[in-house]
Write a structure and sequence with these properties.
The protein is an alpha/beta fold and about 290 residues long. The chain contains 9 helices and 10 strands. β2, α2 and β3 form a beta-alpha-beta unit. The chain is globular and about 50 Å long. The mean pLDDT is about 95.
Length: about 290
C-alpha cells in the first residue's frame, strides 16, 4: 500500500512550506492539493493557485510524487495547462502526476460565466481533455478539434516525445469514465458514491470496485497494470479522526484492492477537522520516515 496526503492550498507559503516538507519526511509517497478556484465553505478564505503551489512544493521536497487531486476542465484548456504542467514536472525532476476528473458543479463551473453541464456532457468534455492532454505530451504540432476544446498546430517541445506520456490518474465512478481511466490512465481514482454512514459508504464502494474490475477484465489492460487510488475522506468518518479510524480505513481499502490511499492534513475546524498529533501517530505506525 502506498500513502498520499492532500494539503489544501489555503496557507501562505511561509506557513505551508513546513507542512509539505513534514509530509514528505513522515514518509508519504505522494503529496497532493486540490485544483479549484474556490472550494465549498472555505470559498471566502485564503486560497492559492494549484500549479504555483505545487511548483513551490517541488523546491522543498525531493522524493515524493506531487499531483493535483484532481484537476478540472471547468476552467482549464489543455494547451495552456500542458505548458504549466511541463514546467512543474521539469522543476520537480519528473515527479508530477496529473490527477484529473470531470469537474464539479459548484463555483468553478460557473465563475467564468459558463453553465453547469449535465453528466453526459461533462463526460464528453473530460474525454476530450484527457485525449488532448495526452497528445500534447507524446506528439508535436498537435491539431485537435472537439466539441469543447480545439488546438491548432500546438507546439509541445520540450515535452515531446514521451512515449509513456504524462502519468495521469483519472477519477471515475461511472462505467464510461472508468473506461477512459483504463485506456489512458496510469491510475484510477474514486471517492465512492456516498453513504449516510461509514458502513454504507464502504458497501457502496465495494460495488464501485466490482464495476471497475468488470470493465478492466473486458479491456486489453493487463491485471495489475493500473494503480488504484482511494480518497479516504469522502467517507462520513474522517480517516484521521483517530488512529483506529485510519487503521480501519487502510485495512478496508486493501481488502478492496486499492494500491494507494489518500488522506488529508488535519485542519482545526470545518472540513477534515482533526489533530495533527493523530496524523503523526498514524504516520509513525504505517509509513517509513525519510531522512
Amino acid at each position: 500500500m502506498r500513502f498520499g496526503i492532500v494539503i489544501l492550498p489555503e496557507h501562505r507559503w511561509s506557513v505551508a512550506a513546513e507542512k509539505w516538507k513534514t509530509a514528505e519526511s513522515l514518509g508519504f509517497d505522494h503529496l497532493w492539493t486540490y485544483d479549484h478556484l474556490a472550494w465549498r465553505s472555505l470559498a471566502d478564505g485564503p486560497w492559492f493557485g494549484t500549479v504555483p503551489t505545487l511548483t513551490a512544493v517541488a523546491t522543498v521536497t525531493s522524493t515524493a510524487r506531487l499531483g493535483t487531486f484532481v484537476a478540472s476542465p471547468n476552467f482549464r484548456h489543455p494547451v495552456s495547462f500542458a505548458r504549466e504542467l511541463l514546467s512543474l514536472d521539469d522543476i520537480s525532476g519528473g515527479r508530477f502526476t496529473l490527477g484529473i476528473g470531470s469537474g464539479g458543479i459548484g463555483h468553478d463551473a460557473t465563475v467564468l460565466g459558463g453553465q453547469v453541464l449535465p453528466p453526459a456532457a461533462r463526460f464528453r468534455r473530460l474525454k476530450e481533455f484527457v485525449e488532448l492532454t495526452e497528445l500534447l505530451f507524446i506528439e508535436d504540432h498537435v491539431t485537435y478539434r472537439g466539441e469543447f476544446f480545439t488546438a491548432v498546430d500546438a507546439r509541445t517541445p520540450p515535452g515531446y516525445p514521451r512515449t509513456a506520456g504524462l502519468p495521469m490518474v483519472v477519477a471515475a465512478n461511472g462505467p464510461k469514465a472508468m473506461g477512459l481511466a483504463i485506456k489512458h490512465g496510469s491510475g484510477w481514482a474514486t471517492v465512492g458514491t456516498g453513504g449516510e454512514t461509514a458502513d454504507e459508504w464502504w458497501r457502496n464502494l465495494r460495488a464501485v470496485t466490482e464495476r471497475f474490475d468488470e470493465i478492466m477484465d473486458a479491456s486489453d489492460r493487463l491485471p495489475g497494470s493500473i494503480q488504484r487510488y482511494l480518497q479516504l475522506d469522502a467517507c462520513p468518518v474522517f480517516s484521521l479522526s483517530s488512529v483506529g479510524a485510519f487503521d480501519d480505513a487502510v485495512g478496508r481499502a486493501a481488502e478492496l484492492g486499492f494500491t494507494d490511499v489518500v488522506t488529508h492534513w488535519p485542519r482545526p475546524d470545518d472540513w477534515y477537522a482533526g489533530k495533527e498529533a493523530t496524523l503523526f501517530e498514524a504516520a509513525a505506525k504505517h509509513l517509513t520516515p525519510r531522512a
